[in-house]
Specification:
Blueprint lengths: L10 E5 L5 H11 L4 E10 L20 E6 L13 E3 H9 L6 E8 L2 H4 L4 E9 L3 E4 L2 E5 L6 E5 L6 E11 L5 E10 L5 H13 L5 E10 L1 E6 L11 H7 L1 E6 L2 E8 L10 E6 L6 E6 L6 E8 L2 E5 L12
Parallel strand pairs: 3-19
Antiparallel strand pairs: 1-19, 2-11, 3-10, 4-10, 5-6, 5-10, 6-7, 6-8, 8-9, 11-18, 12-15, 12-18, 13-14, 13-17, 15-16, 16-17
Helix pairs in contact: 1-4
C-alpha cells in the first residue's frame, strides 16, 4: 500500500512557548521531588546518542526542533482506517519547510502494518541525509495472534511509513545544549513523562510547552502494551480497548522515544506518547514503571519550537490516549 500524498494533507502549525533550558531545569528540579526520591536536572551538552545505551540514528536533538503529531486514535478506534499511511520523510520535510536539510525523526506511533502484514507498534528512529539517504534504527513490535507473544523487529532503511497516528520529534539532529533529567525511586503515582509534563503544566498554565527526546529506563521494569492485530469488531469503550491491547512487564534497559506537550493547543493533541525499543527483544508503548522502589530514569530532551498537526481527524474522541 502506498502512503498518502503528503502535499494533499492538512498541516496546521502553531508556535510553542520556548522557555530557556535553565528555566525549565529549575522548574523540574523542584517539581519532580514530589514524584521521585532522587532528582537531578541539568543543562548539558548532548552526548552522542548514536552510541550505547541510546542507539539513536542521529547524534543530537537540536536544530529547529519541531513536534509533529500525525493522525490520531480516531483513525484506529472504533474502526481502523487502513488508508492512513504516512511517509515520515516527506512529512518531516514539509514540517521543517525544507527538503534539503538533514534531519532526524524519532518518536512513537503505529508501525507500518503492510511490512509485517499486521497491526504493530512503531518506535521511529531515523536520520535522513539529502538527497535521499535514510539510515533507520527504527523498530516495530508485533503480537503473535496465537499465543500473544511479542517480537521486536528492526525496520529496514527502505521502510519510512507510519500508520494511523504518530508523535514525532523532527530536528536537524545537531549537537547542542539539552535538558538531562535523571530520577530514581518513584514515590508519586505518575509515570516519568507525566511527572515532567504536569510539573511544566502547573508552572506555565495556558502557555503550551513541548518537549521531545529520548529516555532510558535504566533499572526495573515497565508496564507496556503492544496492540493486537486489527479488531474485526468496533472498539467503542476504554474497556473494550484494554481487552484488545496486550500488557506486559518489560525489563530494563528500555530506550523510549517520543514527545510531550502541556496543553492541546486547540489542535486535539495527544499530551504524551513514548514507545520503547531495546537490544534484548523487548519493546512497546510505555505506560509506567512497575518497580518504583528500584526504578532509574535518564532522559535527554529539547524544547519544541513549533507544533505541527498533520491530518487531524475531523471526527474525534478522547479514549485510547493513555
Amino acid at each position: 500500500m502506498a502512503s498518502l500524498d503528503t502535499q494533499s494533507l492538512l498541516f496546521e502549525e502553531k508556535a510553542l512557548h520556548t522557555p530557556s533550558l535553565v528555566e525549565i531545569r529549575d522548574v523540574l528540579a523542584t517539581g519532580l521531588k514530589s514524584s521521585f526520591a532522587t532528582v537531578n536536572v541539568e543543562v548539558v551538552a548532548c552526548p552522542d546518542l548514536t552510541k550505547a545505551p541510546f542507539h539513536l540514528a542521529g547524534q543530537g536533538l537540536n536544530g529547529s526542533p519541531t513536534l509533529v503529531e500525525i493522525g490520531g486514535p480516531p483513525y484506529l478506534l472504533p474502526n481502523v482506517d487502513r488508508s492512513k499511511l504516512y511517509d515520515l520523510v516527506s512529512v518531516s520535510q514539509r514540517a521543517l519547510h525544507d527538503t534539503k536539510k538533514e534531519f532526524i525523526a524519532i518518536g512513537a506511533g503505529a508501525g507500518p502494518f503492510p511490512l509485517v502484514n499486521s497491526n504493530c507498534e512503531g518506535m521511529f528512529n531515523l536520520r535522513y541525509t539529502p538527497p535521499g539517504t535514510v539510515a533507520s534504527e527504527s523498530h516495530l513490535a508485533v503480537i503473535s495472534p496465537t499465543d500473544r507473544t511479542v517480537t521486536v523487529h528492526k525496520i529496514p532503511n527502505t521502510e519510512t511509513r507510519c500508520a494511523l497516528l504518530g508523535n514525532i520529534l523532527v530536528a536537524e539532529g545537531k549537537a547542542g545544549q539539552v535538558l538531562k533529567v535523571s530520577c530514581k525511586r518513584r514515590t508519586g503515582k505518575k509515570d516519568f513523562i507525566a511527572s515532567i509534563r504536569t510539573c511544566l503544566e502547573g508552572h506555565y498554565g495556558e502557555q503550551t510547552v513541548g518537549l521531545g527526546g529520548v529516555f532510558l529506563l535504566q533499572a526495573g521494569k515497565a508496564k507496556q502494551h503492544v496492540m493486537s492485530p486489527f479488531s474485526e469488531t468496533p472498539l467503542n469503550t476504554e474497556e473494550e480497548l484494554n481487552e484488545w491491547l496486550n500488557f506486559y512487564d518489560m525489563p530494563a534497559p528500555l530506550i523510549n522515544v517520543g514527545t510531550l506537550v502541556t496543553t492541546e493547543c486547540d489542535l486535539d493533541l495527544r499530551l504524551q506518547h513514548f514507545h520503547s525499543f531495546s537490544t534484548h527483544g523487548h519493546g512497546g508503548h510505555y505506560h509506567i514503571d512497575t518497580t518504583p522502589d528500584i526504578v532509574e530514569y535518564e532522559g535527554y530532551f529539547v524544547v519544541g519550537e513549533r507544533i505541527v498537526r498533520v491530518d487531524k481527524p475531523v471526527i474525534t474522541h478522547k479514549f485510547g490516549r493513555d
